[in-house]
Design goal:
The protein is mostly loops and 127 residues long. Helix content is 12%, strand content 12%.
């Protein structure tokens, strides 16, 4: 059960870094190679809510702070753990990136890598 919980937490944590483009300041192109827009991490420092946190140094805001040495972790009793980002405006998302952060848990990697998660969208934060 602990491994399943941790996997869910790591999945959510990874989703926090979810909109980080492969290149911090790159460009998105359509099918014929025409540049259509500059890419950027719209999740960086977003407003964050979550089902819980493991410790004060693993709070939800650390999922989107852009620092690879911090992370979000959730050890709440919630069956379905989640992380919600308020991006403050609508975006067309062309790419999202999930990064796993094992940091001090290196003896558990890759066994605790994030998996079995989904990205969802809401225009009002309710539906």
């Amino acid at each position: 059960m602990k491994n399943k919980w941790f996997a869910i937490v790591m999945a959510v944590m990874v989703v926090f870094g979810l909109l980080q483009p492969a290149a911090e300041s790159g460009y998105a192109a359509d099918g014929d190679g025409t540049v259509v827009s500059e890419t950027r991490n719209v999740a960086l420092n977003a407003i964050v809510r979550a089902t819980g946190a493991c410790a004060p140094n693993e709070m939800p805001q650390y999922a989107v702070d852009g620092d690879v040495t911090t992370k979000w972790c959730d050890k709440s009793a919630a069956t379905n753990k989640w992380l919600e980002l308020d991006l403050r405006e609508a975006y067309t998302i062309n790419q999202w990136v999930v990064e796993n952060n094992c940091m001090a848990e290196s003896n558990k990697c890759p066994f605790w890598n994030t998996k079995d998660f989904r990205l969802q969208k809401s225009d009002d934060g309710e539906t």
